[in-house]
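User: These chains co-purify. Model them together.
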Amino acid sequence: MKAGDLGELALRNLREAILRNSLTTMGIAVGVASLVAMLSLGVGLQELASKRLANSGLFDTVLVTSRRNLRDFNRPSAEKSASPQKLRSLDEDARKEMERLPNVIEVYPQIRFPTEVRYAGNPYSTVVAGVPASARGNGAYDGMQGSFFSSPGAEEAILQIEFAKDLSDQPPTLIGKELVVRYVERQPLAPLRATADPPSAGNVDRSAVTSSNDSASEGFSIVPREKKLRIVGIVETEPAAGFAGYGNGRLFIPLEVASALRAAQVNDLRDAVRTSNGKPSYANLTVRAKSPSQVEAIETSIKNMGFSTFSLLDATRNLRLFFTIFDLLLGIFGSLALTVATIGIINTLVMAILERRREIGILKALGAADRDVKQLFFVEAGVMGLLGGVFGVGIGWLIGKAVTWGTNLYLQRQNLPPAHVFSVPWWLVLSAIAFAIVVSLAAGLYPATRAARLNPVEALRYE
Amino acid sequence: MMATGNGSTVRAERVSRHYQMGSALIRAVDDVTLDVRAGEFLALLGSSGSGKSTLLNLMAGLDRPTSGAIFAKGRNLSEMNPLELARYRSRSVGMVFQSFNLLPRMTLEENVELPLRLAEVDRGERAGRVREALERVRLENRLTHRPSELSGGEQQRAALARALVNRPTLLLADEPTGNLDSATGESVMVLLRKIQQLLGMTIVLVTHERPLAERFADRITFVADGKLVSDGVKS
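Assistant: Joint model of the two components:
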């Protein structure tokens, strides 16, 4: 029989027993919805956790230090005895080389320095952290009060909520107000050398570059300075906490602005007494990967370049393992309902064979081959699977919306920012529908084979 | 369809169909040899349980003999695979049953179209063939009616249209008047005979009604206990 005729007859048969077939289809839909809901919850929670952890800067970043540093990471004992002059310097060439590595989003130096903030005539001690412009997109500032920096060079500040509470009992009122940051500027003693050939790339930190050669021979002086900044936002998380070890930032300013301040940092004294190859070097660099899964490869490449690295790789591995098992378990629970639905399809089709026994006999007497009868039952099972899959995905999506709504209602009451705990990616939609069809066809295999094998003479006798 | 040797449409050679029921062996058809000639109207006459319907099913390729051979289109049906048998039924044989066997969910038009679908006839050709078949049985105005909306006689005529729509050369009718009153039965038989004469097809009629067989068939073969007890052309 031609495919078109097969489809028409199958749809007609499904329409004729519409109540039973609708109930069977709904059974499949509930099964698929359960599977989709469970897996979407797993995917959503995984995305949420990954996003939060990525936002923390702990899992998608590699901290790079020179092996010449006293405080490097993972330095093999053999290297400790190597001459510092033979070890590679963490300079602009190295930064550019790292930036060219695959899956690296950006490489930037960390700028954190102690400061005294003056607001409403009162002094407050805190730590300023430079924030790269790219931080706007990584979600760390989602749900913040106010707004992110208007431009990479804007003289604006974002406060961490705890620090904002120190400044005012009503933190939101701080937005739009101005504060003064007092810091010490580092000034080279030899102006000619200091102004020569500073790193020029994008948001490269000029002040974070220690011209070790200059410093070693000529040193630097420090001068107290003040900078007026406008408060544009308040953030609840600690987006720049990282693991650099300089203490958490409580006041965030654009990295470009922080660089321009040339503020003295805690490592300047150490670098001032070190000999170097004459090129400016960084105390450390932060390398941001596209995703935590790429950190390992990047870390290996950087180590091969001759630098020390640090990342929380093992933690991401455990996270992936946890979510893989979590998704598997959710999938198994979700599949239970689909298993029940599968039995429903078998039951419906076996009942249909009993009911349509005579019809099958007539079809065979009129010239239907076993193959035609089998395909007819298969198409009926497949159509129920397709419809059940589509409705199931829809129901699963609605369940997800309801769960997200309920969760956010609860989070709102707890004064917590909203979260997307549910995610229905396209691959899940298509896979769920395909899975429903495959399961339905598998369920239809036995009834279809049984129908095809019916003896037409016996079937025609059946009343 | 080509006649099978010597002008035969279908030929049974020492055909037996036995069933095992518990310890008893039922000889539904027992060593039957029968030649159905092209264009003839043959009646298989016998009482209930005599084996005439089993013989008809064997000729239709719906059942396979326990032994012996049935030849049609120059081939032994017993040696055909299920797909070949399905094609033989679809393209060469038309069947009419005592209980009409129309599909109740389909309209008359759809019922008559069904064999065309199974024979994979082009969609564009179907409507004309359906109408032609229904015109032959004078039901062209009942296209959209369902079987339940028709009388017994009309249902049997619709079944006849369905059997004819693929233009078979062999029409097998199993007690076509069994569920009809005598007047309606007779009108169906008149129609059957008229169509046979018009199209020149071969008809094998299974019946237990001797007067009917004597009135319409060219040849009557008596069946009893699975055997042919007499085979003769009517005087």
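Residues 133 and 147 of chain B are 16 Å apart (CA to CA).
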